[in-house]
Prior knowledge:
Blueprint: H1 26-44, H2 47-54, H3 58-65, H4 68-83, H5 85-90, H6 96-111, H7 121-126, H8 134-160, H9 170-189, H10 194-206, H11 208-212
Helix pairs in contact: 1-2, 1-4, 4-8, 6-9, 6-10, 8-9, 9-10
Amino acid sequence: MPAADGEPLSHSGPAPRRGRPRAFDRNAALQAAMRVFWDKGYGGASLSDLTSAMGIASPSLYAAFGSKEGLYREALDLYAETNGGQLCQAMNAPTAREAIETMLRGAVRSFTSGEAPAGCMVMHTATQADDLSPELAAALCEKRSVGAMAIVDRLRQAVDVGEIADGVNVRAIADFYATVHKGLSLSARGGAGRAELDGVVTSAMAAWGPLTGQA
C-alpha cells in the first residue's frame, strides 16, 4: 500500500529482496523537486510529479528523503538559501527607503523572470493551508517571520539615525510592505506582468513619506 504523505513507507510482510538502488544525484533531484513544489505548491505536487521531475522511483525518494513532507522541508531550505538572500541583500541599501524599494523591485524581477515558476514558493504553499501538517505550517511561518523581522530591524535602524520619525509604528510599516510583497507574488502567480507589478511598487513607495512621518 502506498505511504500517506508525510509518512515513511511500510510493508505488511517481509521486504522483498531487491538489487542495489540506482544511484542518483541527490542535489540535482532536490533542485528538481523544489521547482515542482514552487510551481504546484505542497498539496498540488503529486508523488508522480515529483518522481518524474527528479528522475527517480518512489522507493528512492522515500529512502533519500523519508517522506513527501521531508522532501518539501529540504526543498524549502534550498529555496531559502538560493532565493531568500535577495531580501537580506536589499536591507543593506544605504537608506531604509532604498532597502524597501530594492526588495520590492527585486521581487518583481524574480517573480516575473520566466526562468522559474512565478511568484514565491513560500507564499504559494502558505495559501494551501488545508494541505499542511501543523509542523509544516509552523515551518512556513518561521520562514516568513525571518523576512518580516529583517524589515523591522532595518526600519528600527532608520529611526535611530533620524531617517524615520521617532514614535512611528515600525511594525505596522513593515507589515504594510510585507503585505505588498505577498500581493506581488500572488499577482505574478495570476499572470500579472512586470510593468503592472512595477506600477504597484511605485504606488506603494508613494506611501513612504506619510507612513514614516517624512511627508
